[in-house]
Specification:
heterodimer; A: 2 domains; three-stranded antiparallel β-sheet; 14 helices; B: mainly alpha; 12 helices
Amino acid sequence: MSTFTMLLPFGPQHPMLHEPAHFKFEVDGETVVNVTPYLNYVHRGIEKLLENRTYVQGLYVAARVCGICNPSHTNAFVAAIEEAMGIEPPPRAKYLRVVTQEIHRIQSHLILLAVAAEEMGFNSLFMLIWRDRERILRLIEGITGGRVMQSYDRIGGVYRDINDVLAERVIKELSEMRERIIQYRKVFSEDPIVRRRTVDIGVLRTAEMVRLGGVGPFARASAVDYDVRRDHKSIHVAYDEVPFNVITRDECDVWARLIARVDEVLECINMIEYALKHMPSGPIRYRAPRAAPKGAEGIGRVEAPRGELIHHTISDGQRPYRHRIRTPSFANVFPAAKAHIGYSIADIPMIYVSWDPCFSCLARVTIVDVKSGTAKIVSGDELRKEARRRWEK
Amino acid sequence: MILEAILLILEVFIFPGFLFLLLMSFFIEWYKRKLFARMQNRVGPKYIGYKGLLQPIADFFKLLSKEVIELERADNHIIDLSLLVASSIFIYVCFFLPFAGKPLISFEGDLIAVLLLTSAASFMLFAIGWSMPSPYGMIGGMRLLAQVIGFEIPYFMLALVPAYMTRSLSIFEIGRRIWPSLASNPAYLIPWSISVLLFLITTQVELEEAPFHIPDAEQELVAGYFTELSGRRLALLDLAKDTQLLFCATFMASIFFGAGSPFCQSPLLCFITTIIESLAIVFFVVAIKASAARLAISNVLDIMWKYLAPSSALVLAISLLLGGV
C-alpha cells in the first residue's frame, strides 16, 4: 500500500449528509483507509432541559429530541416516568401505542429507503417512495392529530382515541401500501445497478457488530437476533400481545440492511392490522399523579426505527433529578465507521445511509484534555459559566 | 460576391451558427429538465415563459451576473482557459452537423476531426478539476479522465460502423448515404442496430448522465470537477454541457439516422426532421437517466473494458465482413 493518503472531508455541509456532522475520510486513491467522525454540531442540551421541567412539560421536550422518530422518544420517556410512578396504562392505550409506534416505523424506514435511492443517484425512486410516505403521514395525522410532531403518548395513556371509520381507512390504505412496498422490494432486490452498488459492500460480520455494539435493523442485518420489542417485556406497550417476526438477515452488507427495512415495513403493516382488529375497548388514559416518589428510578426501553432507545430517569419529585437518553444512532456510529474501511469512495454514501444516521439526538459535550488524556462531561451550567468567562475576557 | 459574403456571415452568426446553437442549447436543456421532471412525477421548470421555456436562459443570465469566486490556491488561468476552450469546442463541433442540409464546415475526414475535438474538450474538463485545490475537484477530474479513456475507444469504433457502411468519413456524406446503403445491403441492419444501442450507451457516458454520472456524483464529490466554479465560470460550463447534449444527440441522429437527409430538397423539412430525431434521442437519454442508479467507477471501467470495447470491435468486424473487405 502506498503511503500517500488524502483527507476527504464529508461535512459539516455536504450533499450526502442531511444533518450537520463531519466525517474525515482518509483515502488512498479511491480506497478508504481510515474514518474519523466528528459529531458535535447540534448539541441542544435536552437532558439538562428535562431536569428543569415537570414531567408533563418534559413530554414535549422529549418529543423534540428527534424529528423523525419522535413517538419513540415520547414512548420511552413516558415508559420511564410510568415505571418511576409505578403505574400501568389501560389495555386500549397499549394497543394504540403499538399502532402509532409501528406506523412511525413505516414512515421512518420509507425515509431511509428513499434516501438510499437518492444516495445511489436514483432520483426517480426517491421521488416515488417520498410520494408514498406522504400518504403514511396523512394517516398519522388522522390518528394522532399531528403530521410530523405529535406527543401522542401521555403519562398513563394516550392523547386521543381512534374510531372505526378511521381504523378501516388505515387498514385499507395500508393494504394498498403493501402492494407498493412489495414493488419496492422487487426494485431493491432485482435491479442490477442497485445490486451492484449494495451487495457485498460495507460488510460487518456478526461478531464484530456485537463487539462494537450496533443496534436495530443495522445489527439485525448482521444476524444479531435482538429486538427490544420481543426480548424486553414491557407493561407500557402491548408488544407481547401482537404477534410479529423479528427480521434478521445474514448477508451482513448494505443490501441486507436495506432489505431488512423493507421487510420490517411489511411486518409493521401486519402488526397495525392485527392491533386495529383486536383492539380492546375501555378507557384510553388513567389519571396519572403529578409526581413520582423521590429517588424512584425508571427505565424506558423502546425499539426505535433505528434501534434500541433507552430513557433512564431518576425522580426528584415533580421533575427528574437526572434524565439520561441513550439513542440508537449513538450506538451505531462506531460499527458504521468501521464498515467504511477498505471500501471505495463510491461506497461511502451507501454505507453511510445503510445505518440510517440521525444526528440531532446524539450530541454530547465531552471535553478532552489532550495533554493529560482525561475526559469529562460538562453540564449546561458549567458551559454557560465558561462562555461568560470567555465573553468577559 | 458581396451577397455571398453577407449570406456566409448570416449563416455563421445566425443560422445554423452561434445564435441558433445558443437558443437550441437552452431549449434542449429545458426539454431535458421538463422531461426528467415529468418522469419523476414532478412539475419541472414552470414559471418563466410558456411552461418555463425561458428558465434556462434566466438561469444563464443570473449566473452571468453573479460574482466569480477565485480560489487562492487554484490555477485560475488554466481554469479560465480550459473553460473557454471546452465551451468553444462544443460550439465549433456543432458547425459540422447538418441541421438544415449541408453543414457550415464539411470535408472528407471531418468525422475523425470531430471525435478528436470532443475528446480534447473532455480533457479540458479534466484540467478544470485538476487545477482545483479541493479534493472533490481532483478526484472528480481523475474519475472523468478514467471514464473518458474508457469510453473513447468504443465511441470511435462505433462511429466507424456507419462510416464504413457508407464508405465515407464526412458526417454529412454518411448521413446522406446511410439509408440507401442500408436499403441496398439489408444484412447491414444487424451491425447497424447493435451499434445504435451501444452508441446510445456510450453517448450516455460522454454526457455523464445516470448511470454514469460518476465524475460529478453529488453524494460523493458534491459536484466533482466543477465544485468550486461559480458565477460566469459556472454559466459557461452549463452552456458547454447543454451544447454537448445538443451535439451528441444531433451527431448520433446524423450518422446513424441520416438526420433529415431524405428531405434534403426542402431545408425546412430537413431541419424539422433533424430536430425531431435529436429530441427523440434526448428522450432515450433522459429515460435511461430516470430509471437507473449510479454505478461505481470500478463497475464502469469493468463495463467499458470487459464488455463495451470488445463488443464494439466485434460489431465493427461484422460490418467489415458483411461489406466484404
